[in-house]
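name: query_chain
kind: protein
chains: 1
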Amino acid sequence: MTISPLSRRKFLHLTSATALAGWLARDAAAATTPAPWTIGCLNRPWVKWSADEMLDGLRAAGYTTIGLQTTTSKDKWVSNNSRDYLSALKEKIARRGLNAFQGRLTTKDGVPFDTSTAEIRQQIDNAKFLGLSCLINTGTAKPEFYENWYRMMAYAARYGADAGVQLITKPHGGVIADAAALRKCLEKVNHPNLGLWYDAGNVIFYTGKDPLAELEPIIGHVIAFTAKDCAGKGVNVMTQFGTGTVDFVAIFKRLKKAGFKGPIIVESCAIGATADETTKNATANRKFLEAALAKI
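structure:
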């Protein structure tokens, strides 16, 4: 099965012109960097600490666009169905002047489809309440569940479209390990509300392949870039940019040539002994990206 020209046009229109336009416009006025693309950050570096310390760290590191992707024992983000919890989280984010736009859609292997879809609906409804514009799901590593996962993602894409929440995925091993697997995912889901983020660090971590070469077959579908470095297959990705083998400048040049509009979302940095030390590392990674963007 191939992606029809009409579906692809709808896909590109929705992802580039609609799904991210609102929060990008809001964030542009508050941008603190001269970069040509918005630079945001996920919460992952601060998962050892509280939600308040995480939000303070993101703000202190110079980010206003943030994602609540990694859950912790205390904070499940959109997976927490308590309206009191969600309301308090929403207020904490707003009080700091942050723009939370992304969260994680969690799914379970081997769960009845009706149960899975009920959980998907609840999480998307929670994301809508929080004002998030997209939810990421990073697949399954078990081949026996691939077909069911495609089916769940198609359902999530449809329900999310009605709710105004985009479904996204990215290179992450298993069913979405590399460019060929991601293309197959687009074909199987076959819905314009599914977008791709590109994660060069994950390509190296999971496959050991060249992330610049792997970008080429899917470049027309990439709507955001997850910034992460990696020194080799299976090597720690929670590190400082420039210590691995990702050629950020080369990738940014290729994305720019393809008409990429951003954003770039930092996922990783070296985890310090304290939240403040981690914040300094996250700040350094933001500055690294600004320097790289100045070269394109």
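note: Residues 5-293 form a domain with the TIM Barrel fold (CATH 3.20.20.150).
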